[in-house]
Glycine dehydrogenase (decarboxylating)
Amino acid sequence: MTEVNHDRIPIAALEHGTPFADRHVGPRPAELARMLDVIGVGSLEELGQRAVPDGVRERDLALALPDPANEADALAELRALADRCAPHTEMIGLGYHGTTTPPVILRNVLENPAWYTAYTPYQPEISQGRLEALLNFQTVVADLTGVPLANASMLDESTAAAEGMTLVRRAGKAKSAVFVVDADALPQTIEVVRTRAEPLGIEVVVADLSAGAAGLPDGEFFGALLAYPGASGAVRDQEELIAEVHRRGAMAVVSADLLALTLLRPPGEIGADVVVGTTQRFGVPMGFGGPHAGYMAVRKGLERQLPGRLVGVSVDAGGDLAYRLALQTREQHIRREKATSNICTAQVLLAVVASMYAVYHGPEGLRAIATRAHRFAALLAEQLRRGGVEVVHGGFFDTVVAAVPGAADEVVARARRGGINLRRVDADHVGVSCDETTTREHLAVVFEAFGLDSGALVGLDELDAATPDALPTALRRTSEYLTHPVFHTHRSETALLRYLRRLSDKDIALDRSMIPLGSCTMKLNATAEMEPITWPQFSALHPFAPAEDAAGLLEVVADLERWLAEVTGYDAVSLQPNAGSQGEFAGLLAIRAYHHARGEAQRDVCLIPASAHGTNAASAVMAGLRVVVVRCDDAGNIELDHLRELVAEHAADLAAIMITYPSTHGVYEDTVREVCGLVHRGGGQVYVDGANLNALIGLARMGEFGADVSHLNLHKTFCIPHGGGGPGVGPIGVREHLAPFLPNHPLQPAAGPETGVGPISAAPWGSASILPISWAYIRMMGGDGLRRATLTAVAAANYVARRIDGYFPVLYTGQGGYVAHECILDLRQISKTSGISVDDVAKRLTDYGIHAPTMSFPVAGTLMVEPTESEDLAELDRFCEAMMAIRAEIDKVVAGQWPADDNPLVNAPHTAASLAGEWNHAYGRDEAAYPMGTSAPKVWPPVRRVDQARGDRNLVCSCPPLSAYES
């Protein structure tokens, strides 16, 4: 008889392996029990009941999501969806082109957590690697465009053009509200500019500028957007056109193909004021539309108007060269309604890829890639001409438009049967774009699609010898570019590999330390979630290819829209916004359009609490709304009496209120239903900023407690990594009455409602290629796992608050003394008595090997801490113990044991070089370098404290010369 093992685990409990939620959530059961004991509750459920107000928390909420899959099963499902995608050879063009990502960059940047889990480089001393990479990016853009100053990336080409429009309006002297747009600009760019212009009262006039200055409309205008080359591929000499724009008191924005500028005279040499575009074809896959790093560069005199982020050069406390973000862009959102842009996210990870593509290839390699694409286009045009097909333009870079009267559909269909997507311009014209990946075989299919007789075709080598370039002689580039040594040093894979490693070693990312940033939710970006983004079935899709090519990815989109609606309690979701700021803008446009559709266009007041994130106010102004601030009380909550006064005062013109829930102060306000009700009774809509959704999932839903619209940060709550400051995705969820006003897109009707507000991003589904990350997270967590993550994040924040409160008081708490998913530590009184600033504490944390929390937001002189659910107890304790030790160091300063001007805090961080040199401080080297003992994890910052003020006075925003390093 076989002996029965009563301890045997049933096969049903073993066959699916360890649940993914057990990998994602950091604290083990015993650790969680200790945390709950410190908090003073018996279970996570009890914590949720005590912390979340009854009027908000949904009892027994069960999210209607699929049962959780393990990592292998979720990836298998995604593989099956990927197999339903059918990328063709994409020769559509329109700003999206085939490119080859060098494997050394793919593996060591895009797939490397040292790069993709990093945060925005607000702490420059532990961000020197990615700051240098971004400085390289800025240098590439400035050199190729021929204007002196470029920023550290934009969201995409179309939104960069829209930002260019608003820049020249505020920087110029023209009184006109007219902005002229070249009819040959990319069609998606024209429509995004229109969407952005309408609420600002800007009139967009689309004009045929092919005739040069003669094509400009009569009357005044403040600026013009010119295409170089155009969507048609045509390359025109625009120097006289720009001169005429200037003579008429306006400024010129040029949308330029960066790869073409290796061969073409740069816009800065023909008078451009602003140059915008994309770096997609610098090694970043098309990805069904994104993410890609857009760019913007400006002429001298417009530096302080530049939106987005700007990396510049300063020095550290020892006088050594150091990089940092310039103040006017780093703190753009603090300007609130006076901000010139609402952008708080860039595309840093993709900008790093593009910059390293340029570093690896150098100027000669880039020129060779551009020349190859151009030569294939020139051969294509010549063969078509010889075959009797009219080529519309004589001067072009990589795109040929052919006239085929009445036969465009037939040509496109034949090419598609051969595996190639061409662009149907109209019934009589077909566009063909060549790129880095174009081959002879591709041209053969195209020739056949146009009906050329294969027997009469001239061999390409013979044709090559007889075919001149199609670049106008007067527009050929003669100036040098990328002369800095960094673009000539790392040509071998070994050299680039080591360069990338040197840079990443200078930074702190999530692969090295907890990043306890309040309001920013730096949580685990699981490898299984990240894996699909580089699969070619997703990454090689063109956003304007027939939708059936992307059937599997569109199912990912549909699933995500449905799941996010369920999680939030909304009725419809749009995934088009490619950043939280763009989600805010899209949500407010929906509210504005709703009021207009009801005949209440006068409703233009947006109430915003004083505690709100600054992008809220900036977004409201961009959406054509007037900002009115609602006071907060001493506890950080919305002051209801003041809200009632404002609702009454603006009964006729109230459009909306924007609130964050839980509040920006990290508190579950128990009045949120009352706030929503007051605004609704006043005729307004309720916008709930979804930045803090990581404290709500499975506990409460915005659409159920009174909100009408929210944006959701997929790069926070749903695990898309921050990537050093981007990519981000900021979809919006809306109630049914706002659904008709979601974004749409002119080139993909399925991307939004016909009655929508227009596109707010270049691509129909925004940054579509990274949506599988959030899909995988939700699919593997399931409803119960998401709820567990929320409750654990709340537990982690309350644990930290309880442990540290006696050392650094917690500023705000909600009912019962609990915080939500983050807590604010108040250093103001400590700073007053000791002279130690919040900056000193943040820099000193570097010596402890820990990234600092969010500094001085939303309250100056404070640190906002958000531990998230994915940090285990050991890491939480490491942070708490570091903060306690720092408080003991402050006490030594107060007691006079260390001088106020010479102690480890004011001198932090300490580099290895500073410790190895002469030492004449009042504290020991070991106290400086190893405050927690030599067994603790150690991060050596590459520079000492960076002089921010000096850097802001002296903007140097491209690679400094070698002499700067030598000195």
